[in-house]
From TrEMBL:
PROSITE patterns cross-referenced by the UniProt entry: CS (PS51203), SGS (PS51048)
Official protein name in the record: SGS-domain-containing protein
Pfam families associated with the record: CS (PF04969), SGS (PF05002)
GO MF annotation terms: protein-folding chaperone binding
Ranges of residues in domain CS: 171-263
Segments of skewed composition (Polar residues): 271-287
Region (Disordered): 143-172, 265-302, 352-382
Length: 382
């Protein structure tokens, strides 16, 4: 058995120090073997040597790019993202996992790591350094030559480079986007380098206005949406000025009202006594829209996943079971309504082999079973 095989056996048996020794010997014989660095990085990570794990992962990425093999690049970048996560560089980890997704959308562990990173970022203050992306797509490291490279344990983790200054977006290049759920409308203005202390965001019951100077120029940017498609609650609406965008969360005055556009030509009543809670243009016509039907292979007909998700939201879910079960229960309980519908639909239709939180991907199609490698899905007659 060669050193790499011994290292794999030790890693599988949770003998991490032994695995590190074997992979170090294997690297001495073949300093450019990408998988040796990937596996030694995993051994370092599992023995809580996170800085060393990152050094090996970045060497693996650089070597994989040098060999220009897509599968090796994906494996190395995935290991790099995990190492960044354990080094608490969460924005960097999120950036690298996005690269992995472009390389292989079907990578089985990617969704779990993406959710872990999102949960960490959600709890961080807005100005936390761990929210900043400082990592390069391909790390700049010295590639090993034919000589034996030093073990990663003796290499000190390099200080992350200082983040590059954000170049402000020109006024004519600024764009915006929005989406909604039953409770709110989320409006995003894609503008980099907005000065927080000089930006003005005014949220009124029927209008939204944003203005700020463009840093490094004499021009200003101004946007006004008046009137909005429907009224909002200014008291509970919020906004954040970030380095790359301004995000505004407009809480709907009437939950459940579906917006078709951001603005409308509705008339705003001057007297609060005559104002109607729901604008007239929304009340006109048939407002009771039928729930969408989705493809299904069920012999009992299409299922209303909105209804199933709503029903499930009302149930108190305990946290019994092993750690994996607890994780998925917490994940489901903390997810939004669309994500819960996606999880329920994908899990049921695939026979428990697929778990998706993206309703836009699974909502309009049947989710096929994807059994683990070496197994096959079977169907049973009812």
């Amino acid at each position: 058995m060669d050193q790499a095989a011994r290292g794999a056996a030790a890693l599988s048996a949770n003998k991490y120090d032994e695995a590190i020794q074997h992979y170090t010997s294997a690297i001495a014989s073949n300093p450019k073997a990408v998988q040796y660095y990937v596996q030694r990085s995993a051994a370092y990570q599992r023995s809580s040597k996170y800085a060393e794990a990152l050094v090996d992962a970045e060497l693996a990425v650089a070597l994989a790019h040098d060999r220009a093999r897509r599968e090796l690049i994906k494996d190395a970048q995935l290991r790099r993202g995990i190492a960044l996560y354990f080094n608490e560089r969460y924005a960097d980890a999120e950036h690298i996992f996005a690269i992995v997704k472009k390389l292989d959308e079907k990578e089985k562990t990617l969704q779990i790591w993406t959710m872990k990173v999102a949960a960490k970022l959600k709890d961080l203050p807005e100005d936390d350094e761990r929210r900043k992306v400082t990592v390069e797509d391909v790390p700049v490291v010295e590639l090993p030559s034919g000589q034996t490279p030093a073990p990663a344990a003796s290499v000190k983790s390099a200080t992350p480079p200082a983040p590059k200054p954000v170049v402000p977006t020109p006024a004519d290049k600024i764009k915006h986007d929005w989406y909604q759920d039953n409770e709110k409308v989320v409006f995003t203005l894609m503008a980099k380098g907005v000065p927080k202390d000089k930006a003005t965001v005014d949220i009124d019951q029927d209008s939204l206005s944003i203005s700020f100077p463009i840093v490094g120029s004499t021009s200003d940017y101004s946007l006004t949406l008046d009137p909005l498609y429907a009224s909002v609650d200014p008291a509970t609406s919020t906004y954040q000025v970030k380095s790359t965008k301004i995000e505004v969360v407009l809480k709907k005055a009437v939950p459940g009202v579906k917006w078709h556009t951001l603005e409308s030509d509705r008339k705003i009543e001057s007297s609060s006594e005559n104002a109607t809670t729901i604008p007239s243009h929304i009340l006109q016509g048939n407002t009771a829209e039928a729930a969408p039907a989705y493809p299904t292979s069920s012999k009992t007909g299409a299922k209303n996943w909105d209804k199933l998700a709503d029903a499930d939201l009302g149930e108190e879910d305990d946290m019994d079971g092993d750690q994996t079960s607890q994780f998925f229960k917490k994940l489901y309980k903390g997810a939004g309504s669309d994500a819960q519908r996606a999880m329920m639909k994908s899990y049921q239709e695939s026979g428990g082999t697929v778990l998706s939180t993206d309703w836009s991907q699974v909502g309009d199609k049947y989710v096929k079973p994807e059994p683990p490698e070496g197994m096959e899905a079977k169907t049973y007659d009812s």
